[in-house]
Amino acid sequence: MTRESDERPALLFYSQHSVGLGHLVRSLSVAAALAERFRVVLVSGGEIPTAFTVPPGVELVALSPIGSRGGSDTSLASLAPGLTLEEAWQRRLSTLLDLLDALRPAALLVELFPLGRRKFDRELIPLLERARGAQRATTIICSVRDILVAGGPGQAAKDDEAALRLNHYFDAVLVHGDPSVVRLEDTFRPTIELRVPVHYTGYVVPRPERPRGVPTRQPEVLVSAGGGKVGAGLLRCAALAHERHLAGRGLLTRIVTGPFLDDEDVRALAASSANCAGLRVERFIPDLASAMASASASISQCGYNTALDIVRSGVPSVVVPHDEGRETEQGERARRLAGLGVMRVLNSSALTPRRLADEVLELLGAERSHAAIDLDGARTSARLVAELVGAGTVTHAS
Q1: How much is the pTM?
Q2: At the topology level of CATH, where does 220-363 sit?
């Protein structure tokens, strides 16, 4: 993978999604902005839905996918047909090291690690070691979302380990959030001093401007659950809320399942829609924010991208944050944005069709929100990376 005629400096961008699509969508948006200044090779380690398009100027390399099966099972598995987990690990590491050697990149962006993705250190530590020791200096940057998952009683030790790795391997951290909403230290609290600079980019969205919607003739409720892998319960509840409580009021309900929802759950929802007026089920729509801008109300979880689609569209919204196991990220994001008047929050423990329908009826006719949140994260990320590379900030403090 070499392009002798491309005069842009090379940039290798590692991204891994295991459950939802937020990491992939955010990485693609950042990669698109970076492509104006760099030859960007984005390496993705999760399943890539066929409906996704790669931005112009970005080269996508798909590793043998590894990820979570979904639900309460958070263990990693090979998602590549015919490959064991060990075989997938070996292929991935070989591909990563070969790419690094071939590209000799001016910058290496690693998404989330070491602040998360600890289960992937068996391929990332060798990659970082190779990049750190390369004869041609490579600026190594951590690209991380706004909020980290709290890991329970052992989190302090994990935070310290992450700080040590940041100090040893990395030159900077880019936080894709707005510090007026949440700061890195709110969910990352090492006892070890962090010696690498932290830069806030603003939130990353495909386009920062407000989408234009075309209101439907009848009030429409848009229901979504990100990629769908952990959204079956919410989608089923929304279908029942429509059937029992909303259809008789003349509302339309549009359920977007996401590409990773189990096929059996998709068939069950489709059967419900066939027997209930005003209920519509779709697998995927490419521009959820525009659909929200046309809707009267939104029901969703509160992943990074969905939350920002709500912010951009301003749609009256109720979110039910994913909180299985030790998942805390969505709940914290929902709490922060609810405090700004962006959304209402319904905890999963209180979720019933009746309660969900009542929340929707409360939203109908509500004014759209206009929260002042920095959404220019993609362009700011590209500018900061170019500045870091241009400044030759390759220190790798031990």
Answers
A1: 0.91
A2: Rossmann fold (3.40.50)
